[in-house]
Design a protein that fits this description.
By secondary structure, the chain is α/β, with parallel strands linked by helices. The chain contains 15 helices and 16 strands. It has a six-stranded mixed sheet, with helices on both faces. It is globular and about 70 Å long. It binds flavin-adenine dinucleotide. Flavin-adenine dinucleotide (FAD) binds near residues 10, 288 and 293.
């Protein structure tokens, strides 16, 4: 039985970030991954033709670049080969009739673009971002806090309450749907179609409660984070994180599916993998897996509180998506050259996007697709032979 301080179940990039920080802090870390490679949904393979590097799942993570974890690890990641290539035109849209628009990282440029689409929409965008700006310093920390912690509860209380016993304006805005926010704020159908498809990227519908909040959140993340891709493939992030772990004495084992988390007196003390080997964890076991697997399978022998088991049984999986990877003999010709840089969408309208989600939720194939078009080779030529490219079409809902 091997002994470690920390064991992570799974090696997705979230687990690897934790493993890297903990290994760097002096802990003996073991990462156990059931697949043949670490990285989870961050994986790069030559799946079409030799020399064409395709990100099989996640490619771009603007929120990671503005996270506390990236801030803490940036120098170590760079030293191990991770380099982000970014753009100040993170996204855009093309409608079937050829109308197009872009979003810029620069608010003034975006506002001018929105005014071009419909006079007044520029001010509407500036107002929306200005209002969110008042809350952003309380909202973003919540992403890296335990929501049941005192610190998080203070922030949530401040966001939701006025301090005088009634609700703050944020509370009312938080309950709006994305469709309501887009219709209330903007007149241009092109502006609405530019923003709408980002909501299903979060696994949400345009009519989900509080999806209106996603609109401000997404715009703010896209403007602050851009649309970064790692040079040479998304798995450069995984490789760099894994090297931090191993450079600090940690170990990563693939083909090692964890079967049980071992619990003694209410405390996780180790894990057992499928072949029967066990490993002890003196300080913590970090399960970076879905909640249903954690509570129903990995902790099946432990005394898990009944409400947690019930919730795990109802764990909701998001909508699926269809993805097509192509090797290109030349880079695409865009009807609007500004769309070359980021991750634009092709769709008819916000309403068509909402309909596609509703059809998918009904179990039908969408009658008209909302497509995200990602051509990372447009700013990372190293992913394909000279002059050629890779494209990923992602049909939302995702
Ligand atoms: C097609 C597609 C495209 C996407 N594109 C983007 C994008 O461009 N940008 C973005 O931000 N997000 C994107 N996402 C979402 C993103 O991939 C995920 O949110 C992210 O990868 C989750 O990371 P994670 O570290 O939490 O877990 P995961 O990546 O899910 O990793 C979990 C790991 O745990 C392992 N594991 C599970 N159970 C066990 C076990 N019992 N024992 C050992 N190992 C186990 C799994 O094999 C896996 O390797 C996309 C997702 C898909 C499917």
């Amino acid at each position: 039985m091997e002994a470690y301080d920390i064991i992570t179940v799974g090696s997705g990039h979230n687990a690897l970030v934790a493993a890297a920080l903990l290994a760097r802090a002096g802990n003996r870390v073991l990462v156990l991954e059931k697949n043949d490679k670490s990285g989870g949904f961050v994986r790069t393979e030559e799946v079409t033709l030799p020399g064409f590097k395709h990100d099989l799942y996640a490619t771009r993570y603007p929120l990671f670049l503005i996270s506390k974890a990236y801030g803490e690890l940036e120098a170590d990641l760079r030293a191990r080969g991770l380099e982000y290539l970014n753009t100040d035109l993170p996204t855009g849209v093309v409608l079937p009739d050829g109308r197009s628009a872009i979003l810029s990282s620069d608010l003034e440029t975006s506002a001018a673009e929105f005014d071009r689409l419909s006079p007044g929409d520029g001010q509407a965008l500036a107002d929306l971002m200005g209002e969110f700006g008042k809350y952003a310093h309380k909202v973003f920390p919540l992403f890296s806090l335990d929501l049941a912690s005192k610190e998080a509860q203070v922030l949530i209380g401040e966001l939701m309450g006025s301090g005088k016993g009634d609700f703050a304006p944020f509370a009312a805005e938080f309950m709006q749907t994305a469709r309501d926010v887009l219709n209330d704020r903007f007149r241009s159908p092109v502006a609405k179609a530019l923003i709408a498809p980002w909501v299903p990227h979060l696994g949400r519908t345009l009519d989900s409660v509080s999806s209106g909040f996603d609109v401000s959140l997404l715009l703010s993340a896209l403007m602050a984070g851009g649309m970064p891709v790692p040079r040479s493939g998304a798995d450069m992030l995984v490789k760099a994180l894994a090297r931090i772990v191993t450079d600090h004495g940690g170990a990563i084992r693939c083909d090692a599916p964890v079967d049980r988390i071992l619990v003694e007196r209410g405390r996780a003390v180790g894990v057992r993998v499928k072949d029967g080997d066990t490993y002890t964890a003196g300080r913590a076991v970090i399960a970076s897996v879905n909640a249903d697997q954690l509570y129903l399978k990995l902790l099946a022998d432990a005394d898990v509180p009944r409400p947690l088991v019930q919730q795990a049984k109802r764990y909701p999986y998001g909508l699926g998506c269809v993805q097509i990877q192509l090797a290109l003999s030349k880079l695409p010709d865009w009807p609007d050259d500004r769309l070359r840089a980021g991750e634009p969408h092709l769709l008819r309208s916000m309403e068509a996007c909402a309909l596609a989600i509703a059809q998918a939720k009904n179990g039908d194939l969408p009658s008209e697709p909302t497509l995200s078009v990602d051509v990372p080779t447009q700013h990372d030529p190293s992913r394909a032979p000279r002059g050629m490219g890779c494209v990923r079409f992602l049909e939302l809902p995702a």
